[in-house]
Amino acid sequence: MSNKLNANPVIYEVSKNVGRIRKPEDEDESVADPFDSEEIFELIRHINDPEHPLTLEQLNVTQQELISIDNDKHHILVRFTPTIPHCSMATLIGLCIRVRLLRSLPERYKVDIRVSEGSHQSEHAVNKQLNDKERVAAALENSHLLEVVNQCLATTIDK
Amino acid sequence: MSLLVRIETFITAPLESAERAEALGEITSAVDNGSLTFLTLVEQLGPKLTNTDPFIRAKGIGLLSSVLSSCTTQQLGKNVSTVLVKFYLERLQDQPSVGELLKGIHALLKANAVASDNALQIPSRMFSEIALQTYQQTTRHMAFSILELLLQHHLTAMKFMGDDFISGFIQAMDGEKDPRNLLMAFRIAKVLIESFDCTKFAEDLFGVVFCYFPITFRPPPDDIYGITADDLKVALRDCISATRLFSTYAMPLLIEKLASISGNAKRDAMETLTACAPVYGPEAVFPHAEHLWHYLKEEVFKAADDANITAALGSIRAITATLSSATVISHAMKSPLELYLEFAVKDSLHHLTDPELKYARLSGKMLVAAASSSDPACHYVVNAVLPSVLEQCSARDIASRRKTLLDVVVDFLSAGREVYGSVNTEAMDVDDDFITPLLVFKERVLDICIAAASAASAYVPLRQAGLRGIIELLMSRQLLAGPEVGLALGQLHQSLLMDADLDARSEALVSLVSLSRVRPDLVLQHTVSQLFAQLPVGSCTETTPKLLSLEELLGDVRELSVERTLCAPALQRLLERLDSVRETAGSSHGDLSYAEALSSTMLHIIEHREKLPQELGDRNDFVSEAAESILSPLLYKATIAAAGKGGIFTTTTILRIWASIFSSIMRQSTVLLQEKILRNMIDIYVRGNTSLLPEATRTLLGSSSFCPLSAEAPLQETNASLLFAAVICSCRPEVTLAIPSINEFLQDLLVRSLDASNEILIESLAKSVASILNKMHDDTAVSGFLQDGILSKIRSGISNLAMVQQYRQQYLQVYVWLVKALVLKSHPLGYELLSDILGLLSDDSLGAAAAQGMGIIASDPTDKTFTRQTFANVKLLHRQRLFSFCVPRLVIGFQTGSAAAKQCHLLALSHLLQNLPKQVVSNALPQLLPLLLSSLILPSPELKLATLDTFQAMLSDHEATLSDQAASLVTSLLKIVTAKSVATGDTMHVRMAALKVLGKLPECMDYAILHPLKPGILRDLMSALDDPKRLVRKEAANTRNKWFLLLGPKAT
Amino acid sequence: MAKLELVAELTGHSDRVWSIAWHPTLPLLATCSGDKSVRIWKRDAGNGSWGCVSVLDDAHKRTIRSCAFSPDGRLLATASFDASTAVWERDGDSGEWECLATLEGHENEVKSVSWSASGALLATCSRDKSVWIWEVVGESDFECLSVLQEHEQDVKMVQWHPTEELLASASYDDSIKIWREDDDDWYCSDTLTGHTATVWGIDFNETGDMLASVSDDRTLRFWRPDTSHSNAASLGYRQDPRWKCVHTIQDLHERTIYAVSWSKVNGRIATAGADNCVKVIEKEAMTDENAPKFETIVSLTNAHGQSDVNSVRWCPLNEFGDLLATAGDDCVVRLWRYVNT
């Protein structure tokens, strides 16, 4: 924490209406609600940045527009934008998103996580690592790393 | 038993032993009753006191001292004590006895039995004979207490001793480590410094004291003396800052500390500095001022934590204040203050002009701290700094930078208020000879603030800063005058009404609310009127383009009406708007919701007065006013509407809100006022006596009748009974009803409620009667009334199978309210009737209703009726009694009952559990858990929800009890969330509730218990993540993530 | 019409199953999983049903990524994320497996282990980018012969040639390397490039004159050594034949392909991947060895429900040559029979 890579990041206004607007059908048992990008966004917006006491949403790292979902193919693509192009935390942030979704989405969804195009110097490397399930599995058996990830995810819990 | 024997026992018996204590007791009482004199005691002790064994000697002395400290003092004549003091002092070189000796001396001093000339010998002997630091803590403690007593009782004598005392003390204290002793030593030192001439010893005294700085003491975990580091810090600080003599030694050292240490110690150093500066005076501070500025700046900029920043700013303020007090020798040369500030400004200004403005705000704070210390300081800094800040404020184009600078300006404004007062500060508290330096800048500042507040920039904080500036201006004494006030207010309104951004709006609102405290007149004249101008008159058609939604406008009105002087007029205008609403034929839904919004705003304002403490609220004036200006008009309005048999003022939506208004006013009313209101109510509602209505209302009413409590009256009319119940149920017990026969009255109401067909009317009447019965003092009268026919009528009605189920239920409903009234006051009859209801739980057609009834009996109604707030007679522990009465019956009923009956019993049980103080539940929990768990299997959603709520509540307090059942609880919860089948009663809300309970487990149960369950839970929750309903999925995800974060004690 | 019929479903693992190894001589297979255990499954000679006969769960502290039986079937090697490789011996009578040795040396996760045809050599690879060659000395001793560090990224899999002492390794650096020995000196004789993403799986055909590889680029590629000595260019240094890609099946799966298995019994090829599919591919007879043709004859979707399929292996025994084992993220191992009706 001592010398942060990006000492004073720009903080963005988070969308004022917290969470999605309730619709009557939300309460209607007979209607099945499909997963949508907003729901995915809700899951990751409150993840804490590894460096700053701010959420990925506040840092504009995650945006709903950068999430796409295909319910027939059970495929989800989450893109995120590191605060700076040489952010060494990019992989860690991606890992946090990956883990949060692993824990929060049904198995049938195949999730790809990438940094948004041109937003990072080593875009290819980061993407490759984030989507290698073996690497992710190994990372999650590393207790120190897991601790960091859990800390970042602690803020997603709503008591 | 002879004295000698007792002495022997005392000496020989083990310490702490009973006989030793006994011996001492007997000797003491002998002394007390005069049968034994001290001199004889000493004689008899002789052999012990001269014994060759030092420990015998010590014990001998010990006996004497113990007697001294525990005996009553009248036996201690002056000459006796003289002898004793002499005796003690002579022996001081007898090391093993010193502890006991000091104990004796202390006892004598404490008894204030020592003459000053004797007292004088004590310290000199002590200092010469005893090397204090070679003794144990208790002895040292005794010695310090003696010195403290000496200074308390014989100060003049001690001053006579002068230097010897000081030097002796310095030696005695040198090297002291024990916090208890130190605390005392510091106190003593302070007295010496203040009342002795310490000039000669200043350096030594300072050395022996300052060596403890900074205090690093941390009290042990099992600390029984309760001495905190802060106690020591403060005591030490008092010493250091006690005399100017220390300044020469202290200043360099403090600076050195500031430079070296960090964190808490540094804060300590700064706070000490703040305390010392005024005492040491300008001569001492000035030479170091620039140094200090540097270190303090470093601290402010490093921003370790806010407390340190505050401390640093405090020091700056103190230093500047001290320098302000310097007497100026000649006006030719610059005063210390000027030199200092000149330097400070020079050092800071570039931060305020640097394009990045990284340290602008902080430098600003430092300058402001200096400015806030005195009038001259304020003048100097403001004139030196503000122009260039304002200059840039207008020049800068990047919003965030402008904001930073504006913040600095605002800080200056509030500093100005510190020095020159606020608009509401009493004239005597401020010196009007001082003119604020801000005066000359006010126009520009106002312009800049308004510009910022109205800035089109997307950067909201800028607008907020502008608003903060405006409010500071408005609140500052001497600043804004007539037209400027108008301008400032205008901008606040602009932001309040026009700004699209929520935060900016609320900033404006907050400002106005704080303004309303000091200038209510302004806010009322302008703001409130502005808001009401936006509120539609007459029907609420959305034709006129609204800047803000009704809710927003009314919300603002509500916030502003917190101020007492504003709430009456606000209510009045709300009522006027309500009058204007088209309420009869052709009234649209818009009208209804408008009326609703207006009414609930009134309710909020009135209920807010209740929350205030009596004295603040000047409740009586307010409420009698409100009774006149609000309650009565609404009452008449309802009457006309009801008589007109329709319109929105007969809808329960509106009437319920009005009922709450009535109740709130009643709750705040005195007995007298309540009786007045009540009389009016009964006349109109019970007697149908419309002649009391005001002329206007009567004419409107015309020939049409008004009997809202009659079973025959049409529904719209009887809805008005809500108001009746509200008033009756909020009466104080002292209130007398203006009616010939209470029994007939109650009888009448009950019969009406039994015959009524309007649900509202039934409940209103039942509650009214129940409330009156509950508040009756005479319990026999209560049972008398009930058992005189009416009860049997109701009972037979309930059990009359020939009757239509609906009527049986109606009778039961009335019955329930009566039972509630009695159970609350723990009236014996209550429990007799209660068992009837419990019996009905097994009734095929009434079971469910009975269960609901149990809910009503166990819970507090949302409308506050039958609670202490409405003066109900609520016996302590009545719920416990209710619970212990019902639970065994419920358990049996459950075990023996049919499937349907089981359900009703469980439902009743969950009602009880949810309304019970948790500690009561815990005892019964073990026997109840099986029931609760089985109710999670039954297909009733209501029941499941109720039970899950119970678990939710119980988890926080009774995890221990639940722990044994954790596994089975988890199993049934998982069944619910994985099955997802509405058919088995697992509706989405049940599923969500179940997930919530699952999610609560990790927070409150032991890891050891949960760990084995974790894998299974994580696996099964997978399927919940795929729930068809999004809301459930959200809950599931949250719960599952909680479980992932459950990692146990050593999770690495 | 060819298809895969489900023969058995082996449940017991409590976390994703990573890979499968068939016993060379018995109707028995080993599977390893994220639950840090290896399970041994055996076919009951009586009713022909399959069941778990032992669980090896006391050697590794982390995920066991891969396992392999020695050619004589006496030893089982397991590679784990805990950076170690364990070798287990099967007690002839009790049939119980006991840990014989633990091979330490890799800096971090060991990802694959493979026995040479002779059983005298063992190869392991790791995220530390290295491939290690171990020699079996005596009863229970293993000695590191060579540490090969030419891959630029972690090495995902190692596979010995079915007959010769030639090793192939697949890597996260998108390449495959061929390793040979020249009197105790192991060297990289060839680097096979062409895949555009991580190469996850490789397997030789029965004779070892062809190599199949699958990748994150969703292609299946076939390689063979270019033995036509016509052009010297095709010869690596030390005159080893160069391997060249003789066929590529594009977009075989919709997502990453994790495994490929080339039956030594009937020459069929099976692949599995993150699209939940298992495919069977057959080489068309009578095609030019240097331009072979292949066709996909079975495409089984959701072989493990909605889960990734991590491993696929043909049974090496002649009488069970049509048996195919698959393992998935659903913690289940499935046995399929290839039938052609």
Please supply descriptive tags for the structure shown above:
heterotrimer, B: 1052 residues, mainly alpha, Serine Threonine Protein Phosphatase 5, Tetratricopeptide repeat, Leucine-rich Repeat Variant, 52 helices, globular, C: 341 residues, mainly beta, Methylamine Dehydrogenase, Chain H, 4-stranded antiparallel beta sheet
Name the chain pair with the biggest interface and residue counts per chain.
Answer: A-B, 27 and 26 residues
Net shape of chain A: globular
Q: What is the averaged pLDDT score of chain C?
A: 92
- Broad structural category of chain C: mainly beta
How many structurally independent domains of chain C? 1
- Gyration radius over CA of chain C: 19 Å
Can you tell me the CATH architecture of chain A?
2-Layer Sandwich
Spatial strand order of the main sheet of chain A: 1-2-3
Strand order, sheet with most strands of chain C = 1-28-27-26
Overview of the structural elements:
The complex is a heterotrimer of chains A (159), B (1052) and C (341). With 159 residues, chain A is α+β, with helices and mostly antiparallel strands. Chain A has a single domain, classed as GMP Synthetase, Chain A, domain 3 (2-Layer Sandwich). Chain A has five helices and three strands, in the order αββαβααα. Chain A has a three-stranded mixed beta sheet with strand order 1-2-3. In chain A, helix 2 links the parallel strand 2 (75-80) and strand 3. The mean pLDDT of chain A is 87. Chain B has 1052 residues and is mainly alpha-helical. Among the domains of chain B are: 1-114, Serine Threonine Protein Phosphatase 5, Tetratricopeptide repeat (Alpha Horseshoe), CATH 1.25.40; 257-326, no CATH class; 335-518, Leucine-rich Repeat Variant (Alpha Horseshoe); 745-916, Serine Threonine Protein Phosphatase 5, Tetratricopeptide repeat (Alpha Horseshoe), CATH 1.25.40; 925-1044. The longest helix of chain B has 25 residues, at 619-643. With 341 residues, chain C is mainly beta. Chain C has a single domain (2-340), classed as YVTN repeat-like/Quinoprotein amine dehydrogenase (Methylamine Dehydrogenase, Chain H, 7 Propeller), CATH 2.130.10. Chain C has strands spanning 2-10, 17-22, 28-33, 38-43, 50-56, 64-69, 75-80, 85-90, 97-103, 110-115, 121-126, 131-137, 141-148, 155-160, 167-171, 176-182, 185-192, 199-204, 211-215, 220-225, 243-249, 257-262, 269-273, 278-283, 294-300, 309-314, 323-328, 333-340. In chain C, a hairpin with a 6-residue loop joins strand 14 and strand 15 (167-171). In chain C, 51% of the residues are buried. The chains are: A alpha+beta (159), B mainly alpha (1052), C mainly beta (341). The A-B interface holds A 13, 16, 26-27, 29, 32-33, 39, 42-43, 100, 103-108, 143-144, 147, 150, 153-154, 156-159 and B 460, 502, 982, 987-988, 1003, 1022-1023, 1025-1026, 1028-1031, 1033-1034, 1037-1038, 1040-1042, 1044-1045, 1047, 1051-1052. Chain B: It comes from Spizellomyces punctatus (strain DAOM BR117). Chain B: Belongs to the MET18/MMS19 family. Chain B: Its main location: nucleus. Chain B: It holds the Pfam family MMS19_N.
